[in-house]
Amino acid sequence: MTKLAKKAAALSCAAVIAFACAPAVFAAQSVYTDGYALSDDADLFTESEATELTDEMSKAHTATGWQIIVHTDTYGASSDAMTSHYDDYFYSESRYNAEAVMLVFDTASGNRVILNYGSTQSYFSDSVLNDVKAAMKPYLESNDNFGAAKEFVNQMEYAYSSGRVTDYNEDGAATEKKETNRFLVSLSRWWIYLIIALIVFAAFILINRGRYKHMGKSGTYDLKKNSQLRLTDQQDVIIDRRTTYTTINTSSGSSGGSGGSGGSGSGGAHSSGSF
Amino acid sequence: MATMEYKCPNCGGPLSFNPDKQMFSCQYCLSDFQPQQIQAMYAQNEQSETYDEKEIKAQERRAARGEGDGDDLVGYTCPSCGAEVVTTATTAATNCFYCQSPVVLGSRLSDAFKPDRVVPFALSKDKAVETFLKLCGKKKFLPAGFTSKKQVEKMQGVYFPYWYLDEQLSGALTARGKKERSWTQGNRRYTETTIFRLFRAGDMQIMNVFERALKSNSREMLQSVHPFDLSKAQPFAMSYLSGFSAEKRDIEQAEAAPILDERIKGYAEQLLKDTINGYQGVTTESFNHKVFNKRWNYTLLPVWIVTYKFNGEILPYAINGQTGKIYGSLPVAMGKLVLWAAIIAILVFIVCLLGGMLFA
Fold first, then answer.
1. Last-in-domain residue among B58, B81, B114
2. Could you tell me which of B64, B53, B120, B111 has the C-alpha nearest to residue B90?
3. pLDDT score, position A11
4. Does residue B256 sit in the same domain as residue B336?
5. Residue B122 is assigned to a structural domain of this protein
6. Which of A89-93, A98-102, B170-174 has the highest mean pLDDT?
7. B291 with B254: CB under 8 angstroms?
8. CB-based contact (8 Å) between A1 and chain B?
């Protein structure tokens, strides 16, 4: 073989090796299982970092039951478009489970976002989400994407152990209201309901007994219908007259002041009571 | 005439007074007769006194003196079937227990015991039963059988005796009352109070003041079935009792007089007081009255009666035989009532429990 032919053969082998190796490295950084998924499209993690990260993700999945997803991208979504864009991405990936938590690094825009799906939303109250972000912040500030991703995965157990919240909005922003067993809470007030029920019981009996007790009013005598009167004398005589007064306080516009009495006297007889 | 039976002039069947038609009706040939017609036919019999009646009166007098066998029961012979009709001492009309023919015991309502007037039944038994069932219809906690046919069939029309008293009297009332008037002058508010002595005198007529004349039934029941429309009263005739029961008085006029006099005195004072108008705080200082004339009426009034034995107690129900007014306390089946109350209380408890979940 000539030197040229040997060089060409060596280059071909190198190319083959290079092409053969490239899918192997990509495969190591893009892993999809039911328990977790890593798609490092922005090529942020080394192979060993990816392996370490997927180990942690596997543990987090075991502890929470959620699919833990870390996705890196170079799309360049703005802060406002991050959620909708990567929601669309999540739903377009049939490999992702319904119950999942996804961390996205968009290296083109420098934005990061944590997204929840299914019932995992009910675990991420504002305070839990803030705690997770706070734990990741030191790594992000030092551009340690692997450290941030690993901290994110580790925080999943914390989020799970914090428990579910009962209410969250459509964007997955949970309120602080903890879910409780309403029936048990209501049952704890049984004595109030028992008192109400006993009052109803007693009232029902008393009202019905009363309704049955007296039927028919006692006999009434209609005096007007059964009598006649012819007046033979009628006198209305004044025997005393007294006048009293109270002083009205005009300055304040209200009445008041002291009272006094006027004279008294007896009058004569009036006839027929006309006054 | 110990007993009277009114027979149909057409077929000889027993005649009863029909409240719906206000006539005498024969249950067999369905003939109807005006009261005057029947009274004219039996007037002679009602007024005659037979050996039997004398004997029965003697029997009653012996019972009154305590010479009898201790009970107040008196026996008569049913003129229809010959069965012995046993009644209490105050029963004046009944039905033969054997042939169900109406029997009027004339001796109980003759001489001094003859009523002055009678208000005939205007409400038939069917209408009385309908009135009674209407009362019971919406009551869910009545004992089982209270409104059964067997129970309402026991309803019986009874003429109860009452004393009625009309009085003519004069009275004089002295009372005290006041009038007040107020006015404003300058910065003063004046109030003038004038005290009056008020005198009223007048002649009055107070009529139809009533009191029961029978001790054995509850006074409350006998008084509560009033009022009756006495303009419909008829001069007493025994024939009106045919088909009904009737009671003879055992409260005499002298016994009822103080009660009625006191009541009439109160009514007279009220009449005079009612003429004082336009005064405040009227109080009576004195009242005097003088009775000029009294007229007593011994009256039989129609009442439908049904009784019900409940928890060892006999509960009476009385329905005014003229107007349908009802008296009586309905029995309550406590078991049924408590069961329903418990069910409702449990439902309320459950509703509270579920409602409480909304606010938990």
1. B114
2. B64
3. 44
4. no
5. no
6. B170-174
7. no
8. no
Residues in chain A within 8 Å Cβ distance of B271? 223, 227, 229
Measured between beta carbons, the chain A residues lying within 8 angstroms of B272 are 229
Taking contacts as CB-CB distances below 8 angstroms, the residues of chain B near A215 are: 135, 317, 326-330
pLDDT tens-digit map of A188-241: 888 899 999 999 999 999 998 888 876 666 667 889 999 999 999 999 999 999
- Which residue range forms the structural domain that includes residue B245? 158-329
Q: Which residues contact B239 (CB under 8 A, 6 or more apart)?
A: B6, B15, B17, B24, B35, B38, B39, B42, B46, B104
Residue with the larger pLDDT of the pair B87 and A266: B87
- Same domain as B303, residue B176: yes
Mean pLDDT comparison of A210-219, B54-63, B116-125, B338-347, highest-scoring range: B338-347
- B213 and B175 part of one domain: yes
A127 at interface of B, judged by CB pairs closer than 8 A:
no
Domain count within chain B: 3
Please give the structure tokens belonging to residue A222.
């209609």
- Asked if residue B150 belongs to a domain, the reply is no
Chain B: closest CA distance from residue A214 (Å): 5
- Which of B175-184, B303-312, B316-325 comes out lowest in average pLDDT? B303-312
Tell me the sheet residues that pair with B180: B193
Q: Judge whether A227 is closer than 8 Å to chain B, CB to CB.
A: yes
- Residues in chain B with CB shorter than 8 Å from the CB of A229 are 202-204, 271-272, 275
Could you tell me if residue B123 is inside a domain?
A: no
Answer yes or no: is pLDDT of A8 > 80: no
Q: Which domains does chain A have, with CATH numbers?
A: 25-182 (3.10.310.50)
**Sequence-ordered list of residues with C-beta below 8 angstroms from that of B50, at least 6 positions apart, any chain:** B1, B2
DSSP-derived letter for residue B194 is E
- Do both B202 and B246 map to the same domain? yes
Residues of chain A positioned with their CB less than 8 A from the CB of B267: 221, 223, 227
Task: Count other Cβ atoms within 10 Å, centred on residue B325.
Answer: 21
Minimal Cβ distance to B197: which of A237, A241, A249: A237
Q: Which residue among B196, B225, B267 sits closest to A227, beta carbon to beta carbon?
A: B267
Is residue A198 less than 8 Å (CB to CB) from chain B? yes
**Within a 10 A sphere around the Cβ of A127, how many other Cβ atoms?**
12
A246 inside 8 A of chain B by CB = yes
With 90 as the cut, is the pLDDT of residue A143 above it? no
